[in-house]
Amino acid sequence: MTNPQEGWAGRILHGGGESMSDVFSLLHPHLQSFLSERGWQPTPVQEQALPDLIDGNERLLIAPTGSGKTLAAVLPLLHRCKVEEWKPLSILYITPLRALNRDVDRRLAELSEVLGLRFALRHGDTPTNERTRQVRRPPHLLVTTPETFQLMFTGHRLRAMLSSVQAVIIDEVHDLAGSERGWQLRLGLQRLEALCGRTLQKVGLSATVGNPDQVASWISNGSCQPILAPAERSTVLTVETAPPLAEDEVGAMEMRLSPRAHATFRLMAEIVENDPPCLVFVNSRNAAETVAQRLQTMAPQLTIGVHHGSLAAETRQEMEENIRNGTLQALICTSSLELGIDVGSIRKIVQLESPRS
User: Fold this and answer.
1) Do the Cβ atoms of 146 and 97 come closer than 8 Å?
2) Is the omega angle on the peptide bond into residue 277 within 30 degrees of 0, that is, cis?
3) pLDDT tens digits for 157-190?
4) d(Cα 18, Cα 4) in Å, to the nearest integer?
């Protein structure tokens, strides 16, 4: 059987040949000091990507979640922004989900501040006063969604702000490339280049790309090349079911469930209690509310939250923060929390029933 990576693996780039100890030395001194103070060492994807991106090349970075892809893209662009004195707005960071926006917000704001650059977040939940502030005093780095990016073309002051963009980062690019949403974004990027009157440096980020050459071509015809930076990691996948016990027969009557459903909730309660914090994914918003309620009824000692698209922005942000800091033992969620969210403390992820995709 043919290896699916054959045909492009030999063309995968491996950066500019800098050693692991030297690659951060390519960055602005303030960034070097920031990274050194925290004891951060370059990861494989950062080692490979930084020299190319500092040189202005377009790349597709493919590396596992948690391997430092965000910094691999942002560090060299912030360096260029400072050294080359790019005017605001100069860097667009486009992500598919607002939850992902809030996640990268934590990492990028302080990096921008280190260089004396401004950072902002703009999506459907951004207050009007903050949107107005961004127009009056544009950030150097703006994190946004594809839809909000498209809407920015509708106002003349926003178009003027976009006209200074020099580089674009497209996160979770596998979720966009080839989809209708992605093709709309690609047209928007072409429109942006026409507005700016120059070719923009574009960087794609993904953990799961099976067709790197095609996705690289989607990002930029001819000039974008993939960088593959595998990292050692292991994930144990199991399919579990709980056979009904005598206690499930009794509990099922009390909760008006089938014995099998009660057994399933009993198993979930055991998982959450033994290995918190956990994410439990379900297929609909109604299911998220129902599962959380029934799980809480069965195991009142557990702290359980809910996350889905119908909740207020403040509630979603509170749930994300609580699962990060350990206040919650489990978060019952839909795909609103699915793409690339970085919650490093999560012990287990449960998918209840087969996922829709």
Assistant:
1) no
2) yes
3) 999 999 999 999 999 898 888 788 888 999 999 9
4) 29
Residue partners of 284: CB distance under 8 A and separation at least 6: 334
Question: Which residue intervals of the chain bear CATH 3.40.50.300?
Answer: 9-228, 246-351
Closest listed residue to residue 182, CA positions, set 146, 222, 155, 136: 146
The mean pLDDT of 44-68, rounded to a whole number, is 92
Residue 173: C-alpha distances to residues 185, 203, 292 (Å): 11, 9, 31
Token reading at 275 = 């290995």
How far apart CA 334 and CA 355 sit, in angstroms, is 10
Q: Give the pairing type, strands 330-333 and 304-307.
A: parallel
The neighbour count for residue 28, using CB atoms within 10 Å, is: 17
Is 96 within 8 Å of 104 (Cβ atoms)? no
Strand partners, 347: none
Sign of CA dihedral 314, 320, 324, 329: positive
Fold for domain 9-228? Answer: Rossmann fold (3.40.50)
Strands in 348-351's sheet, in edge-to-edge order, are 304-307, 330-333, 278-281, 348-351
Tell me: cis bond preceding 267? Omega within 30 of 0 counts. Answer: no
Q: Residue 299 carries which side chain, given as an amino acid letter?
A: A
Q: Pick from 303, 306, 314, 291: which is nearest to 336 by CA?
A: 306
pTM: 0.71
- Torsion 61-347-323-251 (CA) sign: positive
- pLDDT of 80 reads 97
Q: Flag whether pLDDT at 13 surpasses 50.
A: no
CATH topology of domain 246-351: Rossmann fold (3.40.50)
CB 79 within 8 A of CB 111: no
Distance CA 351, CA 304 (A): 16
Q: How many residues does the chain have?
A: 357
